[in-house]
# Entry
Amino acid sequence: MAAPEEPELSQAQTEKLLQFQDLTGLESMDQCRRTLEQHNWNIEAAVQDRLNEQEGVPSVFNPPPSRPLQVNTADHRVYSYIVSRPQPRGLLGWGYYLIMLPFRFTYYTLLDIFRFALRFIRPDPRARVTDPVGDVVSFIHGFEEKYGRSHPVFYQGTYSQALNDAKRELRYLLVYLHGDDHQDTDEFCRSTLCTEEVMTFLNTRMLFWACSTSKPEGYRVSQALRENTYPFLAMIMLKDHKMTVVGRLEGVIQPEDLINQLTFIMDANQTYLMSERLEREERNQTQVLRQQQDEAYLVSLRADQEKERKKREEMEQRKQEEEKVRQSALAEERRRRTLEEEKERKSECLPPEPLAEDPESVKIVFKLPNDTRVERRFLFDQSLTVIHDFLFSLKETPEKFQIVTNFPRRVLPCLPTEEQSNPPTLKEAGLSRSEVLFVQDLTDD
# Structure
């Protein structure tokens, strides 16, 4: 079965898709589209969620397992500011108040009795948090439908994630619990929370997290903060190494008064935040210093290891060279002994020197390469090999040589070759009864 085709994007959605891709650097357009669709095409929320993922914070659509909220609410130094409802004015006001008082008393009394009795029939569904992110996103959507999109930037994540971000960034976290059924909620949202000066103040000075107490996530936070009335605001910051409630604001607060109260709370606790920043900087500097020391140690260790390696290589190379010299000396000694043995063998195999009176004798004077002269007699019918063997047996003769006549200059073929297996005799070589032959050194060749 073919997969259903995705609906085409509008012009505004296409622009948001391209903008989101530019801001996040994601290459997959499908992933960009899925992320934006998860955030209902709210590009600010989608970008924030993506940045949280890059910083190691779980995605708001893949939150970590629920755990108890760890916020210090027992500090006796918490600043509390409660705005009471204004008293009736004039006879008309007091008359209306007195007439409505029994009805209000009866309504809220019956409502509390009904809720109390309902708990015995079925547990409060808000007590079980199954989708904290969905609770927050649902509240934001409902808020925008009722009060418009002009509001402070809500933190798009769970309460725990907001605490973690505030702690990591050393920022103030303002928590707003929204009472849907409270009579002062609409007035506070329209007249205070959505005003331009309050939005600017909150967006630039702190993180702002909000949720309705009718949602499980908001109800859980309500149980932790224990508000007395609505609207309720709690200022939370890192104090004495733990997230602590440092201010509570309850009741309908006017915009200017809200900004003044929040400023007062921030100024009163600024020293704690500065202390945390300095301590964190010291820890970071200590960590950087330790890292630099570790890196310097590793560099020194690698340098020592490199020196040791080069030293071992030099020793090994020296040993190899010494062994090579020793083997070369041994080979030269063996070659020299073999040469001496060969010279002795050739000398023993030489035929006896003929007498001078022998008519077949040939007197040959050999001029050696070291300018010495050697004289000996041979027979005409003897092979030129005998001459070569005689010269080879002499200590003064080089290892390789050839015999050359002076005039005409020619090399005598004293050794067998492929063309001539038997060298010629002295007579066949054209030698006379008295000859002078030159021994040419061929060792270098």
Q: What stands out?
A: The longest strand covers residues 242-250. The longest helix spans residues 270-349. Residues 62-69 have pLDDT under 50 and may be disordered. Strands lie at 79-82, 172-178, 206-212, 232-239, 242-250, 361-367, 373-379, 401-405, 410-411, 434-441.
